[in-house]
Amino acid sequence: MPELTQLNAGHAPAVLAFELANRAYFAASVTDRGDAYFDRFADGFSALLAEQESGACVFYVLVDEDGSILGRFNLYDLKDGSADLGYRVAQHVAGRGVATETVREVCRLAAERHGLHTLRAGSALSNTASRRVLVKAGFVPVGPAEPSDLGGKPGTWYQRDLASLR
Known about the structure:
By secondary structure, the protein is an alpha+beta fold. The chain has helices spanning 12-21, 23-27, 35-39, 41-54, 98-112, 128-136; strands at 3-6, 58-63, 69-79, 82-89, 118-124, 140-145, 155-161.
């Protein structure tokens, strides 16, 4: 059974393997991270952990029984009881409800563990699967997202009120 856990230093090799294995799949729907991301992965990963330690962000990974990463679920820009949500799941589990189920769990954790009352997530208009996940997880569209918000692609902001999860 996969386990949702907060990101820690021990996850670095599995996260890198996840990003490399799914790079082309992710690039089809979101802006590619670029070669520099992979060339400087260790530094970037350390920066994520420092950002999480500061309280500005919380990063979760969905870890399979074999230790591989099935998905990443990030709460970032935590302030005033709200945060933005970003996520990505491995291609081999896409379309199986993994993203929807885990986004729901992250919403619960955001309310219960992190004291948040609102989450916001952006999705490109072309990313039908992501938009479907957000709606199934209780998010509602709240307005257009500028291409500069979504890696150059026009999209929609979605929002979820977490009050019912407390």
